[in-house]
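Incident log, structure service

09:12 report received: a user says their structure output differs between two submissions of the same chain.
09:20 pulled the input from the user's history:
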Amino acid sequence: MDIDEVVSACAAAVGLAEGESGIRDILSAVLTAEPAAVREIARLAELPVPIVAAACNELRRHGVVDTQRPVRLTPVGRAAVAGAGGAVGLPVTCPECDGRGEIVPPGLAGAAAALEEIAAGMPGAKVELDQTHCTVDTKLGRVLRLYQAHAVAGQRILVLGDDDLISVTLAHVVAQAPSRARIRRLTVVDTDADILAWIDRTVADAGTVVETVQHDLRHPLPAALAACFDVVLTDPPYTVAGAELFLSRAVSALMPEPGRHVFFSFGARRPDETIAVQRAMTEMNLVVKSLAPGFNRYVGAGVLAGTSNLYHLRTAAGARPLIEGDFDHPIYTADHRVTATRPYRCRGCGAVHQVGPGSQWPQIAALREGGCPACGGTIFRPLPLQPRTGQGVVQPGRQPQGDRGITSARRQRRGNR
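09:34 re-ran on a clean worker, output below:
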C-alpha cells in the first residue's frame, strides 16, 4: 500500500482545507487511540467531527480504516501508517492533569461537588446563542489559570457571556481556597436572562458579590463597564465575526494600561479562519501569552469534538477594539444556516428528524433520550447542513465561504469610524 497516494486521494476527495497534512493528522490520531470513536479522533487531530467522519469514510474505501466501529486501522493500513512514522508513541501527557497544565487542589473538593450540583440544575443550553456548557473540571481549570496568572486577588474581573458559570465557580473557589483572595469587582454581561437569574441565585451565599448585567454585545458596552477592568474572560460564538466582536468588547472594557488579561476560549477552525482570528488579535494589540489546545471540555459541541482552545492574552500599549459601535452582522453559527435546526437520521430505520430550536427536540440529547418515534432507536447520524440561498456548498460544521465574519466585521468597523 502506497500511503502517500492514499493520503493525496483522500485529501482531494474530502476537500480538506488542511490538505494532506490533515489526513496524516487523522491517521496519527487513529494509530494512537484505536479503537476510538470519531469524536476522540477529532479531538486528537483538532479537526471538526464531520470532517473527520468524511475522511474516515474515504480511508475505508482505500482499505486503510476498517469497516468496523469504533474507528480502527486494518492490518495493512496499520503497517503502512506506522511505517510512515504516523505516531511517536511516547507517553508525553501528564497523567495528573491530562495535559492541561494544572490539577485541582484537594482543598477544593467541596467546591467541585457544589458546582456539579449547580451545573446539573442550570437552564438548558440555547443552541441559537451557540451555548454549550463546559464540564465542571473545565470551570475549575479556567479559574485555576486565573490564579496562576495572578489575576484574582485585588482584580476587577469581567465575564462576557457566562453560560459556563465561571463567575459562580470563581466565587466558590475564592470562598474555599486556603488563602482567600479578595476580588475587587466581579461582573457578568450576558444576553440570556435565564443564565443571569441562575447566577444571582447560586452565588447568593458564596461570599463574593457578582454584578449581573443583561446586555447584547452587538451594542457597545454600557459606559459604566468601559475601560475599568483588569481581567476579561469570554467564550464567544465560534465564528470569526463572533471572535472579533467579543474580543473588541473585551478590549473596550479593560483599563487602557498595558498588561491587562484576556482569557479567550475558541474552538479549532479551518486555517484561514484561525489566521483571521489571530490577525484580529494582532490588530487589537493583544499578545498571546499562552495557548492551551483542547483545554476546554464541553457537554455536547459535537462538531468541535467537545473541546476548544484557551488563549491567555495580554494587552500591549495602544490596545484598541476593532469594533466600537453597533454591529449588525451575523455572529452565531445558526445565522449561517437556512434554519437553526439540523437533520438527524435514525441508524435503525432511516427516519430523519429535525433537531434544534422550535422543533420537538431542541437538542440531540432529547431525541436520544426519547428515542426515534418510528422504531425507538437511540443512535442518530447528523446530516449535512444546507447553505443559505446564493452561497456555496458548506462543509459540515463550517462557515459558508461567501459570508466570512472577518469581512463583514471590517466593513462594519470602517462604518463606525
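09:41 both user submissions now match this output. Likely a transient worker issue. Closing.
09:42 reviewer note: The first strand starts at residue 156 and ends at 160. The CA atoms of residues 122 and 198 lie 7 Å apart.
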